[in-house]
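## retry 2 of 3
previous attempt timed out at serialization; input unchanged, resubmitting
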Amino acid sequence: MKLVMRDNNFITKKHHKGNWKRAWTHSFLPQNGDFEPMPHGLMPDWFLRSRLKLRHLQLLLAIDEQRNLHRAAERMNIAQPAASKLLAEVEAIFGQPLFDRHPRGLTPTVQGEILIRNGSLALRTLTQAATEVNAFTKGQTGMVTVGTVMAPMIELLVDAIEEVRAHHPGLQITVEHNISDVLAPKLLEGEVDFALARIPGDHDPKQFTYQQLWGEELHLLCRETHPLANKEAVTMAELAQWPWVLQPRGAPLRQRIEHLFLEAGTPMPRSIVNSTSAVMSLIMVNQSDAITSLEWNVAKLMSGMSRLRMLNFPERVFLQPYGLLTVAERPLSPGAKIMYDAILGLAARREREKSLEECQ
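## retry succeeded, writing output
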């Protein structure tokens, strides 16, 4: 005789010898036999062969967020037994657990994290599809979310937006400003359509397609009453004596400044505030004796609009070029393609103009 009792995470079986054996619910297959464990090595169309449902993905994301099956079921507005059954089904599809069970909840396995990450992208893409379809139904052109670092926002993006709005007034445009280290993950996760940025050093370049645009000269800024503001030329030793506000370590602009101090044989300033916000940097520079570094067009704009001065540094310093960054093998939506092409066309015209000026 064999008795079976099921709870949230376990199946408990009593065998004929009287011994109780507890097993994870991932070893439980529905009685109708619809789901069978997948063989090692998933086929490209595995999700069709296995009858994976969007409901399965929604549950995995809810469990990942709540780390508790009961709360995940409440989040999805379903009963806990139904959530247990869905989890058992999807784990049976893979033939292995997607979550480690602990007394206080569940944490995803490596396989679970892979499925959660890609499942989240799939659901987000479907949500975006609905938004785009609704936009076209209402007579709008579509929508696009552009990620950008500071310099191309001033040099290209604003003018490109004006061009696009003139020809496609119904296009919904969202701009997200941040550093490349933040924008690249957002791009991979589908939160932005493309980015004007650089490929971070800790990311595999094969994940992206990259259309290089141009680099930018760096300038150092301080407030107009700063003791170094009117010097004919400042040295790295003098700069090291003052507080700085810079992008976090690892950011291209921060790395370039660190290399300048290293090449001069001068220790980095002892007081550095890390900030991804250019606005925060400028506020600190304006209200204290802090120094910051910005790309040429940004520094020129800000020094002309406020009480800031560009320091006279004896050598010209250039930053690694930025470019148009998209995810490899992920096509752009119609709205994103309109904006992408506008930026690329504007950049090409600006490049031709620069070449003509240099020839004259």
